[in-house]
C-alpha cells in the first residue's frame, strides 16, 4: 500500500488514462532497431525457448505481457494493441524489441494474389464461348 492508502491505483485514472505516456514505454523511440514495418495483422508468436521474461531487467512489464499473451495463443499486432490498451505504434516498437531479443517471431501476412490482367479474362471468356 502506498502512503495514500490506495495501493497502486494512483498510477491510473479511469477518465484520464495511464499516467505513464506511451512514448515513455518506448523510451521515446518510434521504431526499433530490428523492426521492419509490422502489418497490423502480422501474427506474433513466442519462441519455444523463451522464458517468461520476468527475470530480464531490460524488459518492461508490457514486454512481459506480450510474451505471455503470445505464448498461450499467437496474437496479431492489432489484437495486442487492443488487449494492452496501447497505441499500435507503441506495440510495434515493443514487438520489434522482442524480435531483436529473439523472444518472439512474427509471421507476416501473405500478400493477396494479384488479379489477372483484364485482357486475359476476356480471352478466357471468348475461348469458353467458342466451345
| Strands in their spatial order, largest beta sheet | 4-3-5
The major pleated sheet works out as: 3 strands, antiparallel
Helix-strand category:
alpha+beta
- Taking pLDDT < 50 over at least 5 consecutive residues as the criterion, the unreliable ranges are 1-8
If you compute it from the alpha carbons, what radius of gyration comes out, rounded to the nearest whole angstrom?
Answer: 22 Å
Short description:
The chain is an alpha+beta fold and 131 residues long. The chain is built from 5 helices and 5 strands, in the order E-E-H-E-H-E-H-H-E-H. A hairpin with a 3-residue loop joins strand 1 and strand 2.
Task: List the defining traits of the structure above.
alpha+beta; 5 helices; 3-stranded antiparallel β-sheet; two-stranded antiparallel sheet; 131 residues; disordered N terminus; elongated
Q: Can you describe what's shown?
A:
This protein has helices spanning 22-25, 61-72, 77-84, 88-100, 118-130, and strands at 12-13, 17-18, 43-46, 75-76, 104-107. The chain has 131 residues and is an alpha+beta fold. The strands form 2 sheets. Strands 4-3-5 form a 3-stranded antiparallel β-sheet. The radius of gyration is 22 Å and the shape is elongated. The N and C termini lie far apart (83 Å).
Amino acid at each position: 500500500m502506498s502512503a495514500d492508502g490506495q495501493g497502486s491505483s494512483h498510477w491510473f485514472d479511469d477518465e484520464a488514462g495511464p499516467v505513464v505516456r506511451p512514448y515513455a514505454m518506448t523510451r521515446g523511440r518510434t521504431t526499433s532497431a530490428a523492426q521492419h514495418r509490422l502489418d497490423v495483422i502480422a501474427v506474433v508468436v513466442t519462441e519455444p525457448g523463451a522464458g517468461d521474461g520476468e527475470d530480464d531487467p531490460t524488459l518492461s512489464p508490457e514486454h512481459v505481457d506480450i510474451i505471455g499473451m503470445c505464448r498461450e495463443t499467437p496474437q496479431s499486432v492489432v489484437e495486442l494493441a487492443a488487449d494492452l490498451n496501447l497505441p499500435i505504434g507503441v506495440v510495434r516498437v515493443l514487438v520489434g524489441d522482442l524480435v531483436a531479443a529473439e523472444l518472439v517471431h512474427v509471421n507476416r501476412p501473405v500478400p493477396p494474389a494479384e488479379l489477372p490482367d483484364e485482357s486475359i479474362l476476356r480471352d478466357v471468356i471468348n475461348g469458353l464461348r467458342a466451345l
